[in-house]
Each structure stands twice: as C-alpha cells, then as structure tokens.
Amino acid sequence: MEHGRSKKIYEEAKKYIPGGVNSPVRAFKSVGLDPVFIESGKGSRVLDADGNSYIDFVCSWGPLILGHSPEYIYDGIEEIIRKGTSFGLPTETEVKMARLICEALPGMDMVRMVNSGTEATMSALRLARAYTGRDKIIKFEGCYHGHCDSLLVKAGSGALTLGVPTTPGVPQDVIKDTIVCRYNDTSSVEAAFSENAGGIAAVIVEPVAGNMGVVPPREGFLESLREITKRHGAILIFDEVITGFRLSYGSAQGLFKVEPDITCLGKIIGGGLPVGAYGGKREIMSMVSPLGSVYQAGTLSGNPLAMHMGMKTLEYLRDNPQVYGSIEDNAVRLEAGLNAIIDELSIDACVTRAKGMVCLFLGKGPMESHDDVIRCDTARYASYFREMLERGVIIPPAQFEGWFLSYAHTREDIEYAIKASRESLEIAFADIIKYRP
Ligand SMILES: *Cc1c(COP(=O)(O)O)cnc(C)c1O
Q: What is the pTM of this model?
C-alpha cells in the first residue's frame, strides 16, 4: 500500500501543528506508524490522500453512527449554509434540537448546548458543585471525560489515596477535590463517601466505559451508584458522550433504566459537527445562567449548522429504530467471528461488547476495570493494527479504544474485517503459534 502523499503532508503538518495532528491519537504513535491523512469518506469507507480505500471502524470516534456523509442527512444542507452559519442570537433549530434530546432521554428535562464533550463535562461539574454546595467529585480510573483539568487524574500508587495528574500543567491544587475510584467496584465508592462525609458533590461515570476499550458495567453497578449518590445527597452524572444515542435511542439511561441527575452528550448529537450538551432535572438546570446564577456561555453554542446536522441525525435515529438492531447484529457477528479466531489460534485475547460497542483486547479476560485492561499486550496490538491497515481496514490506532460500527457497515464489511483479523492476528502472534507443539 502506497502512503507517499500522506507522508509528505505529515512532514508539512509537523512544521506547523504539534505532532502534526489536532488530537494526539490521530498520530498513530501507539501503533508505531505515521498517520494516514484522509481525503474523503462515504458509507463505511474512507479514502486517504494516496487513494487507498479502507473500511473504517474509527468513524470519527463515535459521531458517525450513520456512516460517512449519508445523503439523507446532507439533503438540503447547502440551503442551511446559505442562510448564515452563526448569529450569536437564538434560532428555532436550537429549540427543536433541545426538545428532541429531552424527549429521548428519561433523565433530561432541560438541556444546554455547548461545543464539545469536554465543555459538557466541565460545565456539568460546575453545576453539580453549585447545586450541592460541595467541592469534591468522584471519577473512575479508565473513564475519560475530555481534557478539563480537574478530570485529568489517575489513582495514586499503592497506599497513596490522593490522585495524581495524568499530564503536566495540571496543578495539584486543582485535582485535590477529585477522588478516583475503581470502575465496577461499588465498595470503592462507598469507602470514598464515608471518608468524605457530606463533601462529595457528584459522581461522574461513563455508563459503559468506552475509553479504556469497551468495559460494560457489571450487573447492578449503575443501580448502586444511583442509590449511593441519592443516599448522600450527591449528583449522579452520566457522561454519555459516547453512549448517548449509540446504545439505544434512549441512550444508556434508557437501556439500563437508571436515571442520572445530569447527562453529558457530544459526538452523535452533532452529526459530525462540533457539538456537546449537558442537561438533566429541571430543578438543577434552572440554576444555569441566565435563569439561575451558574455562569456558562459560548459564542458558537447552538450553532445553526451543527444543530441542523444533529437534528437530522437524531430524527433519522428516532424514525428508523432498525438502525440499532442492524448495528447490534453486526456487532454480534464481529464478536462471534473474533471469538472463533481467538479459540482457533488459542491466543490470550478477549472480546467485550455492549449492544453495538465492541472491543478486541489482546489480553486475558474478563475485562471489568482499568487494572484488567492495562495487562493487554500493546506491542502485539500495534502489529495487529499495522496488518489490518495493510489489508484495508482501519481499526482504532490504540488498544484502549472501542471499534465504532455504523449503520453503513455491511455484513460483507464485517466478514472482511473478520477474515483480515484472522490473518493479522496470526502474524501478530506468530512467535507463539510457531513454537506450539
Ligand atoms: C470523547 C469524549 C469526551 C470528550 O468529548 P470532546 O468532544 O472530544 O471534547 C468526553 N467524554 C467521553 C465519554 C468521550 O468519549
């Protein structure tokens, strides 16, 4: 496969953009390759700058649940653009969008649009702190909520109970109120609440963890978070930036029947444009400015073009519920195909799945927390990725990311990805397989 033009663009990119990319994972660093630069996308496929075509399982990391550039969403878009792309004054589309979201999610009475998932979680925390009059928050190791300072924290090592920043530039002072618990471990949450009685404003969680690969919640985990937060007068925040409108039209809260107090959204609700949102119970959302005193604003928030694309996407999902069944069928097929390969090659690997969310971990399961997933073999994953790319399939360029399936992926795409995985995993594990008696 020829990558000459991608390489040339990358050289130029590195001169002007840190690392040549505008979000780190795109640099393909953890799979030891130079990035491919994308020219266009259609359906389940993307075309790179050298004209190579790939089946794409990144799908913009979640927004493209209907695949790349679907005609039925793009219909009428030129007209919308010509009407003007931003006013800084309210438009009716924002109202339609807000109503769509509130009608879909059980825990959502009112919603405020922002421009990214990061903004959504950052604003949700401010609101939860204002509402409870408390400062401390609980997050889970391995859950990602965007790059807001107070959430870039991991658990301290050993006996250290204080969290540590995951990046330079975050002062210890900013994260001193962030407590890190273990995903799927209710007792770690109970312990945090008893150690910080009356001080915890909120628990923020990905209802299905999608940023350490895919780690579904254990039966009863979300229910116990609901019960514990209620008992302690704390706010439960579901970060549904990935799961929102992906697990089901009612999102994770509709699927698991657990209602959070505040929900964060992003990705799918922008239909491929930069959007985020946070919302929840009326009593809480009534504190947001200008109705209430908690300040939060945005020059491009509720942008007419982004609202239009998001609205078209949500309307399509609402009116075509078969989308979810179809994606799940393909996810089940992919899961079964990969499991058959793992059995046949007898390698340490496992597949996790929640509805249409799938991940192949190159490590022994079960995968229930960050401690489990970090035992995976990232070097073998890098080799697996490179072989897949060579065969025209883009899987996530990092072990700790889920595969994103879309409605545009066909059964043939899935069969091909399984076949390519069979060959690629055999190469990635060649040393083990070769020396087996
Ligand atoms: C992607 C993501 C975010 C951050 O959203 P951005 O739009 O990238 O800022 C937050 N939470 C979760 C669960 C995400 O997957």
A: 0.97
